Every structure is written in structure tokens, then in C-alpha cells.
Amino acid sequence: MRTPLNRWAALLLLVVAPVSVVAEPIRIGSKSDTETTVLAHVVADLVRDAGNTVDIHERYGGTQVVWGALRVNSLDVYPEYTGTLYKQIFADRNITSDAALREELARLGLGMTRPLGFANNYALGMKRARAMELGIKNTSDLRNHPKLRLGFSNEFLKRADGWPGLQAAYALPHNDARGMDHRLAYKALDEGGIDVTELYTTDAEIKKFDLVTLTDDRSFFPEYQAVLVYRLDLETRAPSAVAAFKRLEGKLSANDVIEMNSRAMDGDKPAVIAADFVRKHFQIETTVVGESDAHRLWRLTVEHLMLVGIALAASILVALPLGILSARRPTLGRFLIGTAGVIQTIPSLALLVFMIPILHTGTIPAIVALFLYALLPIMANTAAGLRGIPTSIAESAEALGLSASFRLWRIDLPLASRSILAGIKTSAIITIGTATLGALIGAGGYGQPIQAGLQNVDRGEILFGAIPAAVMALVAQGLFEVAERVLVPRGLRLTPSM
């Protein structure tokens, strides 16, 4: 016999269960390239059709960034390639089979689908006319042409399965390979700026720019079968989502992917391309709601302002007292300012990547990195402004018996206010510009269209993020000039007459 208490418990479960599903969306990520971004939207459509909510984190960055996000539970699933897992992520494990690869992933709490049906392999490529002119057909033929100009993506230049390993395997004499964005490398190849670059065999640019793929005659590159890598706890947390994206296994042909990449290169949105694919192959109807440029600009502006505002406010709260301390304790001050200076020398992208294992991905690591970058100008200018106060003023204040706190707030800080504001203004401008890199780890802001534009060589998309960022910096500069008129004592603003 069911008691009233049991009936209420059953009703409570009916209410809470759907809420719990909605409260924990399936987090789907992609690398910064177009192909995995389209695949992420395909996965999202299948997972939504199974009744799950979805949160897409597209164009996160390079392999290590997205892999790190999966490891630290900032993502649930993303598209990857077996060759990358073998040769880059587990390069030191000497894994030679998919079964061993699955075991290694399972030790990390991760799983891998069966191949999706296509391979996107590495190869070196040249303009067809240039290759025929020099008689180059195989990768080994490059040894006879040491003066060829090579340009590769920055990731390929560093990967174990990229240029370092390839150069050693073929004993290639070229030591001046340039690093550049992958899409820009295609452009440089087409315009004659370089002679050789790496290709992904499903890239639409191979046909568009009439490129020839050099034969890997020493079989250096492994097979890069497309798979989905996911967190194993998803099998118990959202089994319907796992079943949904496993429907992709064996369903994607190389021609399908090349066609989708071609559409993306022509300007079609990844969400639209994905919707057409699942409609054709899975009979799933999805509605792609377009975002107006005005709404998108507003959303990006709010995201960027949040990154800049929180980071700058935190840096002022920390750097101002440290600057005061540095002025009063010179030895300690040299250490504090020196430490902030060392942080400033770390490349911003590297600092963002360092934050991922500690703070995951998204806005928090981006804000922390921006906060660290903003410390030095405020701290140094505060210390310099206070140290620049004439000794006679300090002696007069002491003779009058003024307390230390009164002197600080009513005399020292007002006299140093111009220098302090200059430091805060410098930090604000730096933060606005550097915040565009936050998009590489899913923090949003103006960096999103800049990153997408770089990937697709779309100047309009790049300008959609770059121009508002520049305008924001100019507005910030104007606001600080107004603040100087209000906060800096009038006598300090007067220009001496000649």
C-alpha cells in the first residue's frame, strides 16, 4: 500500500529529475579548426534529439587546450583523431593498437567511440604547377631542394608527429620553416609566399587552390581516424547522450566532410551545415536560430566588459596596496615589482594554457591571467608616484603631527594620483587587448570572431571583433582623461607657463 509520504516522494522525483537533466547540459567542445567545429554541432544536434540540453564550446584552441579541458572536466566530449592520440597526447607510451589506446584512456576516466568513418591525415602539399616544375612527387624529393620556403602551422612545428619528427625521418635540410596560422599558410602557398605546407587530407582548400599532396614514401604519418573522445562518467550520467553521438560511428565519409568543409569555406555557418547533415543522414529536423549582428555585438561586448572589468577591479584592489608597500619598503618593493615584471614576460597564450589544469577553461582562468598581467603598471606607477613626493612635504606633515593614515589618504595619494591613474589606464588598455585571447579557452568576448576569422581567412569576421576592441580601448582612454580631471588635484594638472 502506497503511503502519502511515498506519493509525495514520487511526485518530487517527477519534478526534480527533469530539472537535473536541464541543470547539467552536455558540454561539447571543438578545436580551433573548422572541421571539428562542424562535427561538434553535428554531435550537438544528435544529443539534443535524444532529449538532452547542450552547451557548445567551439574553437577552444589547439589540441592540448581542448584535451586539457576534457581531462579537468570542463568538457564532456569533443572530436579527435587517433593519430593525434597516438603520436601527440600519448607520444611517450608507445601505444600501437586501438585496444591499448582505449585502456590508456580508461585509466584517465575517458572513453573513445569507434571511428566515425573518415580519416583526416597529415601530408605535405605544394601548388601543382610548382611541384611539376621542380619534379617533386614524394616527400623525400624535398631533400634535393633545400632552398624551398616551408611554412607550417605553429602546432605542426612543435608536434612529435609534425615537423620535428618528419624532418628527422626524411633527413630534410630545411632549418628555416616559418610558423603561421594553418589557413593563412594556404593563402601564402597560393600567393607564392611559401612553397610547402602541411595539408589535412579532408581540407577543401586542396581542390580550391589546386594543390598536390606529396606521397609520404617513408610512411611517417600515422592514420588519423576521426573519433569522439568523451568522459566515461557520461555513460552513467547521461547514457542517452552517449548512445546519441555513437550513432555517428561509421556514418561520415571523407566526401561528406570535404563537402562540409567547402561550405564552411564559402561562408556557411557550422550550425547550418550540421543541421543539413543530420537532416539528410538521420532524418532529424533541427531549427537553427540565427543571431543578428546587433545582438551578437552586444553579447560579445558584455562578455568582454565582464572579463576586463573583473580583472581590472581585482588588480586595482591588489596592486594599489602593494604599490604603497613597495614605496615604503624599497627592498621588498624591488622584489614585488620584479615578480610582477616576470609575470609580464610570460606570453599571454602560454599563461592561459598554464591556468587550465588549475582553474579549468572558460572565464575564470582568463580573468586570473588578465589580473596578473594588469598588476605591474599599477604597482610600479603607484610606487613611483609616492616616491616622487618631495621630502619637504613629508617633513612638514610629520612636523604638524599628522597620523600616517591621514597623510596617506589626504596628502600622499592625492599627490601621486596622476601617476596612479596613468598606471591604471595602462593596465586597462593592456587588459582590453589581451582579453581577445580569452576566446582560445572558451571565455568569449571579441576574441571569438577574431579567432573564427583567422581560421576562415575572413577579414570581415576579424574586423567584427577587432574594431569594437579598438573602440573600447579608445573609450577607456577617454574615460580616464575625464577621471583625471575629477580625481587629480587641479594644481597637479596645471601646465607651467613658459
List keywords for this structure.
mainly alpha; 61% helix; 498 residues; elongated; 3-stranded antiparallel sheet; 23 helices; 8% strand
Question: How does this structure look, described?
Answer:
With 498 residues, this protein is mostly helical. Helix content is 61%, strand content 8%. The chain contains 23 helices and ten strands. It has a three-stranded antiparallel beta sheet with strand order 3-10-4. Strands 8-5-9 form a three-stranded antiparallel beta sheet. A two-stranded parallel sheet has the order 1-2. Helix 2 packs across helix 14 (270-282). The longest helix is centred in the middle third of the chain and has 36 residues, at 293-328. The protein starts with a helix and ends in a 5-residue tail after the last helix. The model is unreliable at 1-23 (pLDDT under 50).
Helix fraction, binned, reads 55-70%
Overall body shape: elongated
Oligomeric description of these chains: single chain
Strand segment count: 10
Helix-and-strand structural type:
mainly alpha
Summarize the structure in short.
This protein is mostly helical. The protein is 61% helix and 8% strand.
Helix and strand topology:
Blueprint: H1 4-23, E1 26-29, H2 34-49, E2 54-57, H3 63-71, E3 77-81, H4 82-89, H5 98-107, E4 110-112, E5 122-127, H6 128-134, E6 151-153, H7 154-158, H8 163-170, E7 178-180, H9 182-191, E8 197-200, H10 205-208, E9 211-213, E10 226-231, H11 234-237, H12 239-245, H13 254-265, H14 270-282, H15 293-328, H16 330-345, H17 348-359, H18 363-387, H19 391-399, H20 404-434, H21 447-456, H22 459-487, H23 490-493
Parallel strand pairs: 1-2, 6-7
Antiparallel strand pairs: 3-10, 4-10, 5-8, 5-9
Helix pairs in contact: 2-12, 2-14, 15-16, 15-18, 15-20, 16-18, 17-18, 18-20, 20-22, 21-22
